Amino acid sequence: MTSWTRTLATSMSNYLYEGIRWGAILHCILEYGAEIAICTGPSMEPTIQSNDRILMERISSHYGRIPRNSIVVSKSPSNPKNSVCKRVIAIAGDQVLIPDGTTTMVPKGHVWLEGDNFQNSLDSRSYGPIPIGLIQGRAIFRVWPPSAIGTLPIPTN
After folding, report:
1. CA torsion, points 143, 37, 72, 112, in degrees to nearest 10?
2. Is residue 154 pLDDT above 50, yes or no?
């Protein structure tokens, strides 16, 4: 092997190593750290407008520690190919008033999700409590549009 081919092989090996290393780091950040998500539809208005981009952290959902009033991104229980953006109203052990006027208890390992726009939201009032395993992350910061960049407000009601 000539000096030139040895140098080329070493350089290619170094690039491959760095590519794999940074790919692994990026994978860990996206899988266990944070991700940008797009919230579509009117169910979270006025808190989140349709097509707002939010930063969601994934650590809370990996450990199953999602506090009440958190806004989360979850797989839709009615269509797992879609994601939904909703607020956690109740956690395991909480009693929830359902639309027919009765109460139900949120079972262990589940949460009750509702949109802030009650008149225009398909949520746990329709499909019941959802498993925490469907939650992809907790929304912590709006990153788009520029006029609304900042932390997400938590309603007091």
Report:
1. 140
2. yes
